[in-house]
């Protein structure tokens, strides 16, 4: 029988330090439709509405290519997917073309709000760039809803 040196105990490989992926910090901001920094083309203009967040909505968006509402300065900290809640008033369903940073996302139907005086909301996920973004609402052939504000969260 041959006696050898005892073998060294096997060691488990040293675990490498790993960092769990960090999730982006929470973010929340609201942007009023009637803000002076937004662009209201053609006949689109602020009008009083008691139910609206600041007492105003932007009306007369659509029914001509010159009647649009462009939210500007929607500033977010990081590029990525954000929840965008659009508050609006429309007594009947209305289609709206939405453009994000000049790129059309196609048509979106806003369901009828309870009546022509009550604000409703439609939420969607949008990819936004770090820094300033634009979101434009338009309908070149028919009226779009009246817009109150946009809430952006992550």
Task: Describe what you observe in this structure.
- Helices cover 0% and strands 42% of the residues.
- By secondary structure, it is mainly β.
- It has one domain: Sandwich (Jelly Rolls), CATH 2.60.120.
- The strands form three sheets. It has a five-stranded antiparallel beta sheet with strand order 2-5-10-7-8, with no helix packed on it. The protein has a four-stranded antiparallel beta sheet with strand order 1-11-6-9, with no helix packed on it. Strands 3-4 form a two-stranded antiparallel sheet.
- The model has no long low-confidence stretch (mean pLDDT 91).
Which keywords apply here?
five-stranded antiparallel β-sheet; Jelly Rolls; four-stranded antiparallel β-sheet; mainly beta; globular; 154 residues
Q: Would you summarize the structure shown here?
A:
The protein has strands spanning 28-32, 39-40, 45-48, 56-59, 68-71, 80-89, 94-100, 103-110, 120-128, 135-138, 146-153.
Helix content: under 10%
What is the CATH superfamily?
A: Galactose-binding domain-like
CATH hierarchy class name: Mainly Beta
Can you count the beta strands? Answer: 11
Q: Which of globular, elongated, flat, extended, rod-shaped describes the shape?
A: globular
CATH architecture annotation name: Sandwich
Structural class: mainly beta
As laid out across the biggest beta sheet, the strand order is: 2-5-10-7-8
Note the gap between the termini. Answer: 71 Å
Number of domains: 1
For the sheet with most strands, the description reads:
5 strands, antiparallel
- The fraction of residues assigned to DSSP E strands is 35-45%
- C-alpha Rg (nearest Å): 25 Å
* SSE sequence, one letter per element: EEEEEEEEEEE
Q: Residue ranges: pLDDT <50 for 5 or more in a row?
A: none
CATH topology: Jelly Rolls
